[in-house]
Design brief:
Residues 1-21 form the signal peptide. This protein is an alpha/beta fold. It contains eight helices and 14 strands. Helix 7 (336-349) packs antiparallel against helix 8. It is globular and about 50 Å long.
Length: 369
């Protein structure tokens, strides 16, 4: 494989509808917006946080790179297309972002395309590999993008479980290819498809030369590890150790967390596999600093989510702004509208830091995705 892979603004007023007085008071609902809602930029005045004046960035600590450092990097994601009912294609279910309107399935494809867009802007020499159900009608013809069918159970209830299985199968094929062509090294970053890579990640494999795989962590007692970003060094030894590690996670998932198979099971299994390792110090998750640990024979690099898997808080809660060194923004849940809006904004402004201000100003709102 060769070196990889991939970016809006409107205002309106929320209308509140009340039931007639004769009706019992409605339950409080989480309002989702069909447009960007800009608020104050969190983190103003705090050190090492992005400072914004409107959507204009006032400080920058790095210049987004235009080429990978060192060997090639490939991004790997799992994506499938589900059959939609007639109702899903009705006009009432359309979502409009900018000048485009999407059905439910088209929304997913739009997010996938924007995922590729961000990578191709920040790391134009890298590749994207999409692992998918062979039965899925996934027609995506993009330069440096490969659709890779893998047999399995991609049903919604088992997708997170299947994702780990697909990762393991993919790593097994890489081992076979390396045996035939040992001189070709490509590193891999397994991610969700709702992330935006906003800085070159090629340095990761040079700055931390001793890890086999990397995970992202946060200060969360129950779910300290997020499965949306897993990096694997492209050597045969590292790929083998990463495969064995993921096989152990799959075993834990299947035996302990099947009740959470639709969501969170993979993250709970990841945390179990790490926390149950003798001598592991959970206090290391409380500080946003990278560290290396041997877990079951694999050298695991733990990277802070604040830099490599930053998610805009949604709704209430503490929000200390956006770290200046952020490299990956994760648009979980209904933040996917914000992901599409951000790409549209970047396409018109060509400034990633200004785009990050847009994300920062919009990040606490629930949107309609």
């Amino acid at each position: 494989m060769n070196d990889t892979v991939i970016l809006f603004l409107s205002f309106s007023v929320l209308e509140l509808h009340q039931n007639p007085a004769a009706q019992p008071p409605p339950k409080k609902m989480n309002t989702k917006f069909d447009h960007l809602v800009l608020g104050p930029a969190a983190g103003q005045g705090l050190p090492n946080r992005l400072q914004c004046q409107g959507t204009k960035a006032l400080n920058k600590t790095h210049t987004p790179s235009s080429s990978n450092a060192g060997e090639s990097v490939s991004f790997v994601t799992v994506f499938t297309v589900y059959n939609t009912s007639l109702a899903d294609s009705r006009l009432s279910n359309l979502v409009t972002v900018g000048n485009a309107s999407y059905t439910k399935m088209e929304r997913s494809m739009a997010v996938l395309n924007v995922f590729v867009n961000f990578i191709q802007v920040t790391m134009p020499r890298s590749n994207v590999v999409i692992l998918t159900d062979p039965a899925s009608d996934l027609s995506l013809r993009r330069n440096s993008v490969t659709v890779y069918p893998i047999q399995g159970d991609y049903s919604r209830d088992k997708l997170m479980l299947q994702r780990i299985r697909s990762y393991i199968t993919f790593l097994e094929t890489r081992l076979e290819e390396l045996a035939q062509n040992p001189g070709h090294i490509s590193h891999y970053i397994f991610t969700d498809s709702d992330i935006a890579v906003v800085d070159d990640l090629g340095h990761l494999f040079n700055d931390h030369p001793n890890f086999h795989l990397a995970l992202t962590f946060r200060n969360n007692k129950e779910q300290p590890l997020n499965s949306g970003f897993i990096a694997v060094r492209g050597t045969a030894d590292a790929i083998l150790r990463a495969k064995i590690f993921l096989q152990e996670v799959l075993k834990v998932y299947s035996s302990k967390f099947m009740s959470a198979s639709r969501m969170l099971g993979d993250q709970l299994a990841l945390a179990w596999a790490v926390k149950s390792h003798p001598g592991f110090d959970l206090r290391r998750f409380t500080k946003a600093q990278a560290f290396l640990e041997n877990i079951g024979g694999a050298s695991v690099l733990f990277l802070p989510c604040a830099t490599y898997n930053w998610t805009p808080p949604e709704g209430a809660g503490q929000f200390h702004g956006m770290p200046l060194d952020v490299k990956v923004v994760h648009f979980k849940g209904s933040r996917k509208r914000l992901m599409l809006e951000s790409w549209n904004f970047l396409s018109s402004s060509s400034d990633i830091f200004d785009m990050l201000c847009l994300v920062l100003l919009s990040g606490r709102t629930k949107y309609d995705f």
